[in-house]
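Sequence design from tokenized structure. All designs in this work follow the same two-part layout: the structure record, then the generated sequence. An example of the structure record is given first.
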């Protein structure tokens, strides 16, 4: 090779097309492992003359840690290691096809070439990613439509609300935008694992199981100054309200811009969405999963205890809790450590709830192992199993005496309507059956007992076995809250308390009722309303009691999660107490998006967003935020004048789409009376 620096043609377009990396906007070669890519460089006089290539990654590359490979020209690509095959050569340049092994470490590589005894010449750098399209890769996904969705799709739908009333919102994962790949590589280099032992950490980066666990720790700020700082207080000064984000790009960019200071603030869906972005970017098929009535079992006994006072107020006692919903991730890879039946979808959870191995990380837990109650298998089986299966115990707690009395227990409460976005469509798919056998079936109870036994919870000193005060008596009455009318912010809330006497003699009941605004984690924030009533129910009689909570009563108290918990604690004379409760999630008013005309690549198109103020007073401080990968750069923010009662606003803005195909526009509208009214629209961009 001549003394001049060889100039390299990385064949960016062709290689990207072959490697499913065309969506990255980079001047650097980005390829997937276990697959050949072609480069051409000049300055080689006779390529057959013992060219040697050197590919290296990480701070101290070595063959022992598989972070350094040296390979010469061969006649065919190697199945095992790195290899180089001459495609064509002329007097001044040579084209080489380079292949990496299926289990290569992923990350940024430096590539150089050496001829004979001269010193190596740098050809430049390239980035190597996981390859779900390749059958030898640990993340291989045989269904290409699933590869498209779980690796290449930049838009997602996250499900929220509660199990009686599932809502959803769009999210812009944006894994191919701008500098996101570099930020994802930086995240790996800032983990505790890397800081403690960079050489070993980099050598493990061939393994999706290892990286999934490391990144579940890095996406939350606990322990390691990771990406997002969690906040479940209901007060978000000094940062952004978690409900206001619409995509991961802004979060990851902010983290980098601030010199890697945690971004304020996140809640579960934010952690899950950011982890989806990072893993899809690196090539690991990943999706978000929402579990409704999700248990947070802090003490590992597969039971969640909730406490109420005599007035029916939900007390903050004990570390256990049940969230209206919780969002985590599933990533797709094989589990060589557990065996073939445990491969496939693996649960990862980046929300900092409990420590695992001394830091806030969770998973990967094989979904199959969770379904079969095999909670002892790595990693964090008991916690994930409890999230979807724990039994609920409801207690009356007397703070004066410290006495607790079991009101009732329920084994079918936790883990409902487990949801994810459909492949290739904007729809919900229910995956509950992939996590557990049918609720209430003999098989489901058998698996629950098996899990308890594996956790050593079945011996005769079982602290969770029913004690005297825990023996359930049969209640004399039953009760439920029914919704009458619409559940919308800005409207009065109309409910019915339905009480039924189950006995053949009359019963006198004193009912204490409360309504609190809560976070989606059911943490109480403000009391909205309280009332009590006395009633005598004739034998087998059912009575309905209408409850009206007016908008002005709850407007100031409502959190941005728009959730209200209503409880009625029924004290039956000479009988046991009955607890009636319901978690209500209110809907925001609607907002409408219209695309005026055809959306074409590199041509302006006008979009109109309309909103009608549904309440009897003016709304002000109105802001419209818009984002969408390949439709506009970054986030567009528009200020909107105040709207009088029932007034309609119409806002127009222009987009210039940069790529053809189905793209999604995400809109978030907020003002002084309404927080984060979100919607999305699919825009079909043509060439």
């Amino acid at each position: 090779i001549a003394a001049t620096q060889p100039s390299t043609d990385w064949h960016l377009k062709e290689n990207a097309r072959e490697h499913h990396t065309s969506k990255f906007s980079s001047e650097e070669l980005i390829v997937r492992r276990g697959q050949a890519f072609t480069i051409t460089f000049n300055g080689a006089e006779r390529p057959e003359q013992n060219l040697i290539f050197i590919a290296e990654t990480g701070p101290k590359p070595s063959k022992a840690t598989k972070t350094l490979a040296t390979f010469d020209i061969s006649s065919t690509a190697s199945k095992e290691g790195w290899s180089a095959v001459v495609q064509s050569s002329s007097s001044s340049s040579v084209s080489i096809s380079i292949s990496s092994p299926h289990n290569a470490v992923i990350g940024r590589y430096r590539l150089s070439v050496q001829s004979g005894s001269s010193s190596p010449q740098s050809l430049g750098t390239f980035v190597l990613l996981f390859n779900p399209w390749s059958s030898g890769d640990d993340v291989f996904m045989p269904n290409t439509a699933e590869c498209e969705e779980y690796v290449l799709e930049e838009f997602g739908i996250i499900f929220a609300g509660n199990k009686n009333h599932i809502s959803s919102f769009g999210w812009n994962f944006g894994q191919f935008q701008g500098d996101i790949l570099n930020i994802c590589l930086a995240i790996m280099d800032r983990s505790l694992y890397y800081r403690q032992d960079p050489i070993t950490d980099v050598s493990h980066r061939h393994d999706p199981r290892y990286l999934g666990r490391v990144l579940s720790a890095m996406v939350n700020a606990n322990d390691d100054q990771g990406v997002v700082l969690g906040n479940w207080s209901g007060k978000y000064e000094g940062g952004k309200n978690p409900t206001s984000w619409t995509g991961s790009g802004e979060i990851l960019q902010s983290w980098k811009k601030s010199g890697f200071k945690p971004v304020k603030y996140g809640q579960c869906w934010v952690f899950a969405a950011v982890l989806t972005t990072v893993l899809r970017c690196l090539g690991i098929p990943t999706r978000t999963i929402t579990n409704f009535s999700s248990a947070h079992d802090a003490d590992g006994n597969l039971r969640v205890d909730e406490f109420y006072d005599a007035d029916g107020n939900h007390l903050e006692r004990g570390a256990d809790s049940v969230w209206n919903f919780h969002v985590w991730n599933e990533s797709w890879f094989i589990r060589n450590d557990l065996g073939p039946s445990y491969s496939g979808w693996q649960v990862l959870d980046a929300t900092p709830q409990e420590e695992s191995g001394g830091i806030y990380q969770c998973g990967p837990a094989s979904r199959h192992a969770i379904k079969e109650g095999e909670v002892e298998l790595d990693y964090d089986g008991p916690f994930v199993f409890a999230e979807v299966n724990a039994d609920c115990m409801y207690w009356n707690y007397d703070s004066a005496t410290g006495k607790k009395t079991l009101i009732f227990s329920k084994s079918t409460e936790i883990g409902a309507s487990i949801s994810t976005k459909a492949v290739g469509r904007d729809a919900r798919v229910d995956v509950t059956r992939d996590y557990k056998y049918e609720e209430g079936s003999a098989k489901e109870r058998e698996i629950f007992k098996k899990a308890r036994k594996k956790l050593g919870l079945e011996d005769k000193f079982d602290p969770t076995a029913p004690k005297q005060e825990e023996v359930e008596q049969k209640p004399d009455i039953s009760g439920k809250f029914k919704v009458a009318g619409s559940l919308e912010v800005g409207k009065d809330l109309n409910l019915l308390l339905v009480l039924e006497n189950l006995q053949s003699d009359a019963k006198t009941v004193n009912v204490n009722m409360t309504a609190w605004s809560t976070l989606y984690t059911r943490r109480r924030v403000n009391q909205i309303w309280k009332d009590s009533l006395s009633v005598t129910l004739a034998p087998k009689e059912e009575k309905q009691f209408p409850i009206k909570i007016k908008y002005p009563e709850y407007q100031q108290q409502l959190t941005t999660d728009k959730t209200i918990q209503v409880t009625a604690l029924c004290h039956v004379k000479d009988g046991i107490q009955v607890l009636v409760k319901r978690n209500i999630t209110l809907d925001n008013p609607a907002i409408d998006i219209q695309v005026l005309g055809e959306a074409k690549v590199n041509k302006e198109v006008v979009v109109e967003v309309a909103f009608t103020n549904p309440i009897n007073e003016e709304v002000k401080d109105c802001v419209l935020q818009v984002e969408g990968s390949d439709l506009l750069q970054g986030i567009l923010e528009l200020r909107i004048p105040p709207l009088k009662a029932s007034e309609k606003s119409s806002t127009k803005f222009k987009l210039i789409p940069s790529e053809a195909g189905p793209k999604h526009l995400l809109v978030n509208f907020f003002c002084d009376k309404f927080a984060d009214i979100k919607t999305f629209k699919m825009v079909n961009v043509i060439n």
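The chain has a mean pLDDT of 93. We note this feature because it recurs in several other targets discussed in the main text.
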